[in-house]
Specification:
The chain is mainly alpha-helical and 446 residues long. It has 19 helices and no strands. Helix 1 packs parallel to helix 8, helix 6 runs parallel beside helix 9 and helix 12 runs parallel beside helix 17. The longest helix is centred in the middle third of the chain and has 37 residues. The relative contact order is 0.12.
């Protein structure tokens, strides 16, 4: 299964940095859309884009289980050198993605109505939201195919391919935005169409790259659908557990923002900037977690317990060091960054006051990221589901019964409890994980 030289700290860093860069490039999609419509569109269109971005971020974040569910099973099949199993998992995931896309397209009008009810856009903004939504929603099939492809490439530890695809997506999106919204003057509809087209090209390239590695088309032709879908319940159950996990985490973050808003615009603005720091740290911590997902799944598939433990330890050391560096950077440099993000001194002062809480959250979050990577790699979604439910409920409980009188300080303390419980509850499941891994090592017939 290769030598331990592939698991040195340097080798693991080499696997992580392309994913970190790819993660960091993701927000550029939104920034380019904003910049183009900000120059060529109206204020109402810009506001419509802001609301629409929230809608699609929520939809696609909730459906991110397609990526996570694919990664673990692909990595395990790769470790077992079972090409047929890889193709089976990939085709099952793609079929689930297409079925979910059909549901999104069929229920697009109720989804849009729900978005209006939740976000309450101004009357001048609502028509632009509708126009963008009804174009962008037709990109759901290719967006979800891209999730599955990303899960495949992470599962096979092809981090540089991920970086190249993300850069292609960003560059093509910027080009199409300029053509459709700038040159052709299609406004916000041009932004939506440009994003859809960029995602379509990215999906096609991803499928071509995968087909060069796996005889996917011949496997699809030679095997009936019943055989391809045989054993799909494991993937379906994993996706269900990951969906519930993500739903509860989303509830936690939404609750944080809603409560912050009740403290007035000053606290809301400061917390927004601090959350940008936390989102920035996620680019790095996710990079190490993705590496862990692929390597753990691979060594589980190869039944190599020694390397499974080794990669878990070493990647966690690297992630812990990175989290500490990020936390110290936020603590000592956060004030300067805040001044770059806003010229409102009262907001900057409040950001500086809460920087220690933000830094502490960032450092403590590494446990949740790494353990999530471990559980995704072995496809143990039930533990992640239970832990997200417990941590979210304790977050709400700690706020209402312990910290509510402390205002925004209490909210940040409850938020820190939230991430600590996430990591601690996942650690609590480690003995159960060991038993689960032993069950997974039994021979599997496809």
């Amino acid at each position: 299964m290769g030598s331990d030289s592939s698991l040195t700290y340097g080798a693991l860093l080499n696997k992580a940095w392309p994913i970190i860069l790819a993660n960091a490039a993701i927000p550029l999609l939104g920034l380019v859309d904003t910049a183009v419509i900000g120059h060529y569109g109206s204020t109402a269109e810009l506001a419509g884009l802001a609301v629409a971005s929230v809608v699609f971020n929520l939809i696609f974040w909730l459906l991110g289980f397609l990526r996570m569910g694919t990664t673990g099973f692909i990595a395990q099949a790769d470790g077992a050198q079972n090409q047929n199993r890889m193709m089976q998992i990939l085709l099952q995931s793609l079929l689930f993605a297409l079925l979910l896309s059909v549901l999104l397209l069929c229920f697009q009008s109720p989804l849009l109505a729900l978005s209006h009810w939740l976000l309450q856009p101004p009357s001048s903004v609502a028509p632009h939201l509708d126009a963008y939504f009804y174009i962008r929603i037709w990109g759901a099939p290719v967006a979800l195919i891209n999730f599955v492809a990303l899960g495949y490439f992470i599962g096979r530890a092809q981090s540089k391919t991920i970086l190249v695809l993300q850069l292609f997506l960003n560059i093509s999106n910027a080009l199409f935005d300029y053509i459709f919204a700038g040159i052709l003057d299609w406004g916000l509809e041009g932004i939506a169409f440009g994003t859809l087209l960029a995602q379509l090209l990215c999906a096609l390239i991803s499928l071509v790259l995968i087909s060069k590695q796996l005889p996917l088309l011949s496997y699809l032709i030679q095997n009936p659908l019943a055989k391809i879908m045989h054993g799909c319940m494991a993937l379906l159950v994993q996706n269900r557990e990951l969906f519930i996990r993500t739903l509860f985490l989303l509830m936690g973050f939404t609750f944080f923002t809603r409560i912050a808003g009740s403290f007035g615009e000053l606290n809301l603005a400061a917390n927004h900037i601090l959350l940008q720091f936390i989102a920035f740290s996620a680019f790095f911590l996710d990079g190490f977690a993705h590496v862990l997902e692929a390597q753990v799944g691979r060594f589980l598939g190869a039944k190599d317990q020694h390397r499974l433990r080794l990669v878990s330890l070493r990647s966690s050391v690297l992630a812990g060091g990175c989290a500490l560096l990020l936390a110290l950077s936020f603590y000592y440099l956060g004030a300067y960054v805040a001044q770059l993000l806003t010229n409102k001194q009262d907001v900057v002062d409040l950001v500086v006051y809460f920087l220690p809480y933000c830094a502490l959250y960032t450092f403590l979050a590494v446990a949740a990221f790494q353990l999530d990577g471990l559980y995704i790699g072995v496809s143990y979604g039930a533990a992640m589901r239970n832990c997200s439910m417990v941590s979210t409920l304790i977050f709400l409980f700690s706020w209402y019964f312990f910290f509510i009188e402390w205002g925004n300080t209490g909210l940040w303390l409850a938020f820190i409890v939230f991430v600590v419980i996430r990591g601690a509850s996942l650690a609590f499941y480690l003995p159960a994980l060991k038993r689960y891994v032993q069950l997974q090592e039994k021979p599997r017939h496809v």
